[in-house]
Design goal:
Largest sheet: none
Shape: globular
Helix content: 55-70%
Low-confidence stretches: none
Structural class: mainly alpha
Distance between the termini: 31 Å
Oligomer: single chain
Mean pLDDT: 83
Order of helices and strands: HHHHHHHH
Number of helices: 8
Length: 186
Amino acid sequence: MQIFDPWPWYVTGPIIAFVMAALLLLGRRFGISSNLRTMCSIAGAGKLSDYFRFNWKAQTWNLVFVGGTIAGGAIARFLMQPGPVVLNPNTALALREMGIEDAGSSFAPALFFGPEAWNHPLALLTLLAGGMLVGFGTRWANGCTSGHAISGLSSLQWPSLIAVVGFFIGGLMVSHLILPGLIPLL
């Protein structure tokens, strides 16, 4: 049983729009990958790469956002009781047919994120390769999914539209072509 239900789209959508309008008016850009760049700069990565040599102090406002994201996740974790995730029955059936037996029992399938995954070389390789591809794609696209899809599209940037279309095509390809062949191997 959940103590609090997630907010509906018609509440969160306008809140996101308000935040994006405020950021645009303040001349700021939003994106999670820029926070990673800032944190690497603070840690001294500028000694290794010119990409990390910039005035990171001008981006400290973005780090407050990251802190709020982490704090919000922690608060949500304590306000919501763990339990099943509401999935479309057809989706749950399709996932079970692929070998994910716990489809809908939690947000992260144990097959990929449970303790057994850390002992399976193919699962580790899949997570590592996926992380590297996301990192490469984020740098190549000059931003992450949240930066392009929320910030870039709200400021009507053509490159963000192209990036978001690419994200969706990539996600569909992985979901329909790669995962169905990979999951039985795990």
